[in-house]
């Protein structure tokens, strides 16, 4: 009989600038969670389907060449934020935050784990997370951890696939009102157009809804606005579903490896996750842009409780 893994997997997904990093950082520090240090970009270059032209491969559920070697599986996982921080720390945007992990040691541990558990797509993902937390030397541990927690934008596109392959996994989808989200994405050096952004936002919401219909006990939808207003109350239902402490003090604010963060930066574009800051961002849009966002978002504005944003 194959040995049991020490933890189960929780993945967070969100459309860009929808609060995925913020939610990820609020779960950091929970004594029953191992929380990945950065975006866990588990996709590979072999991902090629109807979504490939719209969503980057690094944010997708991976595809592996299982005819190759286990070390090749590890290197195929894009995971650029952790690999850059480990291998070339001086060019990482996270260089000012202590992180002690040798990526070659992590690769070797990954190979050991695949030899122990076998190779498959879902098995490789679990071995990737287990190897990371085994090799993260200065990770603050409680000894009570029950889940590995990763975050990858737009992974909700593959939520049904992930949950069907991992029977004890959970998925958390984070949604933010599309006006604030689009206003934040406009600040990027090369932003998506309004039409492209809101269309992808809608696709993310539909993917989350259909996954929740199929896996109601393991697919969780969380609004960024609720996290910003009262993070502990917003995340308590998810914690209850996971069977972990919903009153953990760490849920009250963003942290990095258990250390309080004054702002969620450089992890995400939402530096200050407060209701006032969220509202102010939406109000940056012109009246014409507000109307076009509402038109393209359609029924999701009402379904997700955003009808009163500009009421």
Radius of gyration from the CA trace?
19 Å
Main β-sheet: number of strands, strand sense, barrel status?
5 strands, parallel
From N to C, what is the helix and strand string? EHEHHHHEHEHHEHHEEHHH
The coarse overall form would be: globular
Strand order of the largest sheet: 2-3-1-4-5
Q: How would you characterize the overall build of this protein?
A:
- The protein is an alpha/beta fold and about 300 residues long.
- It has a single domain (about 10-305), classed as Rossmann fold (3-Layer(aba) Sandwich).
- The protein contains 13 helices and seven strands.
- It has helices at about 20-25, 70-75, 80-85, 105-115, 120-135, 160-165, 180-185, 195-215, 225-230, 230-240, 275-280, 285-295, 300-305, and strands at about 10-15, 35, 145-150, 170-175, 220-225, 255, 260.
- The strands form two sheets. A five-stranded parallel beta sheet has the order 2-3-1-4-5, sandwiched between helices.
- Helix 7 packs across helix 11 (about 275-280).
- The mean pLDDT is about 95.
């Amino acid at each position: 009989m194959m040995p049991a893994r020490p933890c189960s997997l929780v993945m967070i997904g969100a459309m860009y600038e929808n609060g995925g990093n913020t939610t990820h950082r609020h779960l950091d520090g929970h004594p029953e969670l191992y929380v990945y240090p950065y975006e866990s970009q588990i996709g590979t270059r072999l991902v090629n389907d109807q979504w490939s032209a719209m969503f980057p491969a690094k944010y997708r559920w991976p595809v592996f060449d299982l005819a190759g070697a286990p070390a090749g599986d590890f290197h195929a996982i894009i995971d650029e934020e952790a690999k850059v921080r480990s291998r070339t720390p001086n060019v990482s945007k996270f260089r000012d935050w202590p992180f002690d992990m040798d990526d070659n040691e992590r690769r070797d541990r990954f190979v050991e784990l695949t030899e122990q558990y076998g190779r498959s797509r879902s098995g490789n993902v679990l071995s990737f997370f287990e190897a990371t937390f085994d090799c993260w030397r200065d990770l603050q541990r409680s000894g009570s951890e029950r889940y590995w927690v990763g975050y990858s934008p737009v992974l909700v596109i593959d939520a049904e696939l992930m949950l069907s392959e991992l029977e004890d996994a959970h998925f958390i989808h984070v949604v933010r009102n599309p006006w604030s989200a689009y206003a934040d994405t406009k600040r990027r050096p090369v932003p998506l157009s309004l039409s492209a952004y809101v269309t992808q936002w809608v696709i993310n919401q539909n993917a989350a809804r259909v996954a929740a219909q199929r896996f109601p006990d393991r697919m969780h939808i969380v609004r960024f606005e609720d996290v910003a207003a009262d993070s502990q109350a917003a995340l308590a239902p998810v914690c209850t579903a996971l069977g972990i402490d919903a009153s953990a003090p760490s849920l009250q604010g963003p942290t990095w490896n258990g250390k309080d963060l004054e702002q969620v930066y450089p992890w995400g574009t939402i530096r200050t996750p407060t209701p006032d800051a969220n509202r102010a961002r939406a109000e940056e849009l012109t009246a014409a842009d507000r109307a076009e966002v509402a038109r393209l978002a359609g029924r999701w504005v009402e379904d997700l409780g955003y009808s009163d944003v500009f009421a």
